[in-house]
């Protein structure tokens, strides 16, 4: 899923202060699951904004809404009237959701309420970590299902750097395992250690963000 | 490793191929443009070693470029081993800088992945790591031997460089350490400089496996050593540098030596002993002395082990 975290209140305030009517819009998909921008977080953020602005002597009208998926036209269409009735929109979705509102409601002023962090998974309650950078050319088959591009701090494709110690990455040993230790252990477990001798050539980055903004067209789906 | 014909015209290559036990040292460029710093260090290293590594923004701290300092060494008649990392440049910039260095006289290149920027003085920088060290070695070998760029175009002119790589026998997983070396050799490395050896039993075990696979006949291995300035330095390295451990016995010996010059003398003696010990190990063809910001130590250490004067 897409993992995100709430922006600091002060930063949100700096954008919405001065608006008479603020619409806070959550998204009930990824960011609800990672407890950053679902209905509950929309309610908390709206309350925090009311209290903070009241302290400053302001009395804005703050409305709470949530949609099923803020990244799709069909799901945000229902927001039309509410958006028209407010001065600014605070989107509690990922960056895709924020931009969907901007594109679908070109006259609206939309601010982000979250920092979109990564594509990852919950490791345990309250802990999420990154698994995929969306490079557009999956290599998981070569590395026992563990992505070195995402999980090695240097994205190394030919084995660990000299900073792998006791299974941890030198860049952040407390929080991060060495991806290459994981790959080594995994390939040993599934009997594929011989793959480690393969000389991986430089990666073709043209399918990733480095080739420019990406677009996918499925001709079989286009109406 | 054919005798007589060199790939690069480098003195390091010629000496290693002739079976000379070689000595390389390291010169860290200044954090700016002060060439006096470089000249002082050049004076300390001149005649004390066969080639001088010029570091490339080591530990991700911005310094005078390794290309410029290597060119300066060439101009002064010294032989640089220019270090090149993948942290700050993509494949275009790396190839372009290598062409530039070759035209300025550089003949030895040490291909490194590079320290992560988190450890340096620009931790908020965007890194590159378009290539890793093994891909870099392969790219340089193809520039030199096949005269083609990574992208496949022909190279105008020659790229005569002696290709080096690093090896850390002390990193984990240990089993990967010989595999990494084998991959570097397969990619085209001519010589290897290892991480600093403090844990001698582990180094010997690594070398035993290297020799067991016959890799020592395909690549020249220079054992990395570092003189310790003090017990504090030993402890610092042990606690803060991932992938190097300094055994308690060494820390104790440094603590027992006292402070200041006494500690430094002991550090130099310890380093000399390490060099003598690695000379006896099959497959070790030289030493690489990393005296970080302590270039004064190099000549006395090389003298202590009877490796002065250096051959022409």
Tell me about this structure:
The complex is a heterodimer of chains A (223) and B (312). Chain A has 8 helices and 9 strands. Chain A is an alpha/beta fold and 223 residues long. In chain A, the strands form 3 sheets. Chain A has a 4-stranded parallel beta sheet, sandwiched between helices. Chain A has a 3-stranded antiparallel beta sheet with strand order 1-6-7. The two termini of chain A are 28 Å apart. By secondary structure, chain B is an alpha/beta fold. Chain B has one domain (11-228, 274-295): TIM Barrel (Alpha-Beta Barrel), CATH 3.20.20. Helices cover 41% and strands 14% of the residues of chain B. Chain B has 11 helices and 8 strands. Chain B has an 8-stranded parallel β-barrel, surrounded by 7 helices. The longest helix of chain B has 20 residues, at 260-279. The interface between A and B is medium-sized, with 32 and 35 residues.
